[in-house]
Amino acid sequence: MVKTASTQTLRTGQKSPHFRLKGVDGKMYSLEDFNTKSLLVVFICNHCPYVRARIGDIINLQSTFKPPELQVIGINSNDPDYEGEGFENMVKFAREYKLNFPYLIDDSQDVAKAYGAVCTPDPFLLDMEHRLVFHGRINDASESGMTANIPIMENNIRKVLRNEKVEKDFDPSIGCSIKWKN
């Protein structure tokens, strides 16, 4: 595990990069498939303790905000040959945690590179026009064993839904580095 902080490549106001990826349910997904007021694209993986610590918070966000308000999309961009990763392990992870959002594989790693994602979890909050409004933390728990006190992402989703400006549009998330192919 290499602890990594997210960096900013995709800038606030920029359109989200397009993708078409396969989900653990066998369906193909793209941003255009979701007509919601906000989208939360989160780069996650199966083995990272930071993801495992925050996955319940991500599931709760999708439960709290129903479409048409929010759609969460999980993307796994880790090298599929890395231990514990790959499509079959994603299917197991989705079942184990009862994911209530699409979990997609980016086995080319092109989507992670286009977004500038470098760690897991690495969340990107988009508005209804798929423009970036916030890139950063799910909450204020910076270590995998910490309890969250401030629901950063939930607060920012509420601002987007009220057409309010997100004051701090980049608040680096912390997690394991994405496992890049050699």
Layout of secondary structure:
Layout: E1 3-5, E2 20-23, E3 28-30, E4 38-43, H1 49-64, E5 70-76, H2 87-97, E6 103-105, H3 110-115, E7 119-120, E8 122-127, E9 132-136, H4 152-161, E10 170-171, E11 174-177
Parallel strand pairs: 4-5, 5-6, 9-10
Antiparallel strand pairs: 1-11, 2-3, 2-6, 4-8, 7-11, 8-9
Task: Explain the overall architecture.
By secondary structure, the protein is of the alpha/beta class. The chain has one domain: Glutaredoxin. It is 24% helix and 25% strand. Strands 3-2-6-5-4-8-9-10 form an 8-stranded mixed sheet, with helices on one face. A 3-stranded antiparallel sheet has the order 1-11-7, with helices on one face. The radius of gyration is 15 Å and the shape is globular. It starts with a strand and ends in a 5-residue tail after the last strand. The model has no long low-confidence stretch (mean pLDDT 94).
